[in-house]
Amino acid sequence: xxxxxxxxxxxxxxxxxxxxxxxxxxxxxxxxxxxxxxxxxxxxxxxxxxxxxxxxxxxxxxxxxxxxxxxxxxxxxxxxxxxxxxxxxxxxxxxxxxxxxxxxxxxxxxxxxxxxxxxxxxxxxxxxxxxxxxxxxxxxxxxxxxxxxxxxxxxxxxxxxxxxxxxxxxxxxxxxxxxxxxxxxxxxxxxxxxxxxxxxxxxxxxxxxxxxxxxxxxxxxxxxxxxxxxxxxxxxxxxxxxxxxxxxxxxxxxxxxxxxxxxxxxxxxxxxxxxxxxxxxxxxxxxxxxxxxxxxxxxxxxxxxxxxxxxxxxxxxxxxxxxxxxxxxxxxxxxxxxxxxxxxxxxxxxxxxxxxxxxxxxxxxxxxxxxxxxxxxxxxxxxxxxxxxxxxxxxxxxxxxxxxxxxxxxxxxxxxxxxxxxxxxxxxxxxxxxxxxxxxxxxxxxxxxxxxxxxxxxxxxxxxxxxxxxxxxxxxxxxxxxxxxxxxxxxxxxxxxxxxxxxxxxxxxx
Length: 510
Fold this sequence. Notes:
The protein has 510 residues and is mainly β. The protein contains one helix and 37 strands.
């Protein structure tokens, strides 16, 4: 929704309010084709044929098929798809072994100094049984740490200086992390996927998807002064498979799925843009004088109204609420009054009569509704803590929101008049933000920040989770492991068929 200190944010908007570039490949600075995001492929070790590799560009998916491995001299040859890289990074992938149990095959991530079979390396690996470990090999030592979870199929290897962190999970569960140190790997290294087919005569297939190479923000990164690049992604909530649609060096935020799932609308640098999923083209939405919009933009359920939060210069730059024609054919109409305090839009009632928003009133942040016609406000929550992220259920029976009134940020719901406020999530290991109800009313998708993040904040560039739970409450499950945060999923993000969500992840440009 916002950071409460918007002075630097507004200055950035004034400086960088320029149109976005045309859509480009989701994999900048690399060759897209047979190798996807990777630069090259090599066989490490002595083998004539350690399987075949294919890359499906449409699915952004790699597959390795293997049979009758010709390993010789006791070596363990493997496929290595690599990319040259410098500094700190995060590598992530989902692995699926098919018809390979007991083959002895392994796969994962390897960091190496060079491409010889004798190079120092750090290996984050999982075998066909789902057993995982983190290994460090130098010229004179070998260290190994087993991952604590069984049946692992999501692997992440992160470098921070000379320390390597291996996070692994069975898809749907949070990561468990182990670490190891290796001072022998250079700042300039090779990073990539590897696949070892295992025993002679073994057969099967490995499928690898959701492959990401992420350059995170550095320790001295200044939020709202500096920005990383952005990936516009979509996710199948049933399978967990993701696809990058669009990449920008700019900060793009908060996508809505609209126009019968043909378009995504997002915010960047104070403007709104429409991404056409078929043509892959981007067009700017005309918002008239409203050129300092934050990422709290919302469409009505019937898409006849577009609500925006624009920083009104006539009210000392306070975020104010407006409604407009989604096509941009008319100027935005101001709904909140000047001088009442900052207002951050989050929802429009199913009957198109009211807006709900987080309002800075009486020295604190609570949830309010406002009548579009009369402009009369109604306070719905009243605590000394932060209540935020309000959204109507499609049937209008509930308003879902997040609140840190019990220490951590958790999800809640209430009746539209503010009564019967009920807590829905209780996990002390996460701070849960921005509940979005599926169009069929069955599910809530939301973002979970790690516990070390202040419960009242939702900053950029964090290691977050997207989670899913029944709309009436229940045990959440992970549907995506992301590097993002602020702007990833601030606004309603479901496709109309309740099968997909759209969101933004981040990485520094190479």
